Structure formats: structure tokens, C-alpha cells
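Researcher: Go.
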Amino acid sequence: MADNARDTIYAVSTAPGRAAIAVVRVSGANASGALRALAGDTLPSPRLATVRQLKNADGNIIDQALVLWFPAPASATGEDVVEFHLHGGRAIVDAVLRALACLPGLRAAEAGEFTRRSVENGKLDLTRAEALADLIAAETPAQQRQALRQFEGALAELYEDWRARLISALAWAEAAIDFSDEDLPADLEERLRMPVEALYTEMQRHLDDCRRGEITREGLFLTIIGAPNAGKSSLLNALARRDIAIVSDLPGTTRDILEARLDIAGYIVHVADTAGLRDTAEAIESEGVRRALARAAASDMTLLVLDGSARDPFAGLDSRAVARATFTVWNKADLRWPAQREGMRISAETGAGFDLLLERIADEVRVRLERPREAPPMTRARHRENVTAAAEALARALRQKQSELMAEDLRLALRSMGRLTGRVDIEELLDTVFRDFCIGK
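Model: Structure:
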């Protein structure tokens, strides 16, 4: 347990002045003392909301609040915890925080410290703690569903199952080393290798998920490409429903990448407008074209916008970018066209065809990310790094001819799995996991 866990910490969980109710939470050995100091000598019944007058050291009333008392270990952090549910005005919250700051043994909590103590005291594993942060930050239904599934223990159950099976396999390997002179089962090697092979296969399948969990959490990237004046900037503005890109009849107006963050089908999609693709000798515009092609190549999806009113709509376009386009639309359906065009017709000017375009994009997003019957996906690079390390250790173990070497690789795999849920090397992980948490959580 961290050294500062001996302190009693306090923080406001709801920003004052922004909500009707603000919650100030205190956790640690002096939580009961803080409760008595502010709300009277008698402790309320555990886990029963009680109305109390809160007073400062001078006896002046601060607020009439709801008080909740959670004695250890039956609390969120595993320590004594008290919650003050206050009226949300800034003056009230500040007065309560000042009163707590004057009490001996109390200090303000650091970012994520309440959840960190929950992990240290065995109330949460690291994957559920990360899911709690994702729930707080969720912007779309898909992010909320994924974070809630992980918070309910879907990833933890999977990793703990693998960990238990690794311990069993390691036990057989240790038996082969420690009792080599005894009458061990004739099929010992098979008993050892079969579960290791099964685990390796499951880990590889888990890794081969096209980064679904990370993309759901961080968002897909869609890049709009096309010739100058094809209507890319107008399309971005229409999709975002606000003016992001400057729209002009002059070719080459857009030179840098402009981006909007959209909610499509419940998923975050980063839509980028890019410079018009054409051969140009102008240095700045040429750099814009290079960046546009690079962004398109690195994106999850590309949307090729063609000018239906142009005589040669493909003039100057990069053939590889055209071939790789996920979607192709013919813009300017509100104008007269010199020839019949095959494909989806839209008008960034009038909005015609937008519903169909958004539906196509939403369908593609769902195909890439929605696989409800599969195992829960990894949501962070930390998960992928440790599962990869465990799978690599198992692959080495299966190649080993000596029991001692195989056992060592199994230990390395077990250590990687322990890092995922916080069973080993806890201290070196906590700072990384909780550095992005808010104060009071």
C-alpha cells in the first residue's frame, strides 16, 4: 500500500456552482473524526442517509446536508468513508473544505486517489478502475456500453481465468522439475503443453481484434479527399453543422487539415477535411496535398468527393487514393451535370443525399466495431502490451525442450497477466493508470 494511504483524504466530487448538489468525500482513519467535527458527536447508522447541520470550528452553521457513513471495510475504498451531500453553491463547498483542512490528519486528495485506494485495498482491479475513468469520460452510447461492460468485470474475468490456467500449467512444469526422480504421469508433457497451446491461441485471437476497443474509446478517423472545389469543405461543415472550414470558389483554399469530432451511430468519428488533390508547383499547396495523402493513408476510412458538374472529375487525383476510398460520393447534385454519374449523389449545398451518406458511414462503423458475441475487447495500449508479452512468453515456452526453461517462460507470462489486473508490480503501474483521473474520484 502507498505511504500516503495512511493519511485521511478529502475532495469535492461535483464541481461547485455547476450542480444543485455537491458531494464532498472523506476517506481514511480520521473520516469518523471529520464527521463528528462537522456534524455532531453521534455517528449516523452505516449506509443510511441522515440530515445533519454542518458547523465549522467556530460553531457557525455551514449547511444542512445529507450525511452518509461507510465504516471500513464495507466502503468503496476499503477504508472508513464519509460523504457530505451539500447544496452545490461554491460558498458552501468552500466552507466545508476549509473546515476539513483545519482538522489534524486530513489533506486534500490527489487526482484519482480514491479509486487508487480502492485498487490498493482490493475493492477494484486495474481494468475496472480504468473502466471507471472511461465511464466518467464517455461521450457516446458505444463508449458508455463498452466502459460499463468492463467496469462490471468482463475483462477482469477473462484475464483472471487466463491467470488461473497459467498457474495450473506452471504447477505441472514445477512438478516436472522438483519431482523428476519420482513416478510422474507418462503424459505429463502433454498435460502441460495442451493447456499452454490453448491459452496461446486464445491470446492471439484476443489480440487480433482490429483494435476495436481502443477505437471505440478514442474514435475512428475518416478523411475527406477529392479535387479542388469538389465540395469537401462544404461537406465537412454540413456534417458538423457548423462552419469549420472556409468555403471559396478559389482552388486551393484549404491547405491544412481541418477536423471535426462527430457522433455517428453512437461512435466517435474524427472527420478531416484536406487540401484538394492536384498537381501544383506552389510550395505551400503542394505540402497540403502531401499531408492530405498521408492522412488518407493513415485513416480508418476515406470519403472521396467527386464534382458531378466537372467535365473530368478525376483530373489530378491520385489513383491509389481513389482505389482505396471507402466511400465515393458525387457532389453538386443541385447543378446540371455534363454526363450521367453512377454512384451516390449528394449536394453539400442543399443537404440532398446526406441521410443516405450518414447511413452508409454508420453501417461501416458498425461492421468494424460491433461484435457483441466476442470476448470483451482491449481498451488501452497497456492491455495490448501485456497480452502481447504474455503470448510471446507462451510461444517461447512451447519451443523449449527443458522443463526449467519452459517454467521460466510461464512465469514471465504469468507476470504479464498479473500486471493487467494489478496482481503484481502494483506500484509501478498506479501512477500511469490514475494520472488522468479527476480530483475527488
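Model: The chain has a mean pLDDT of 86.
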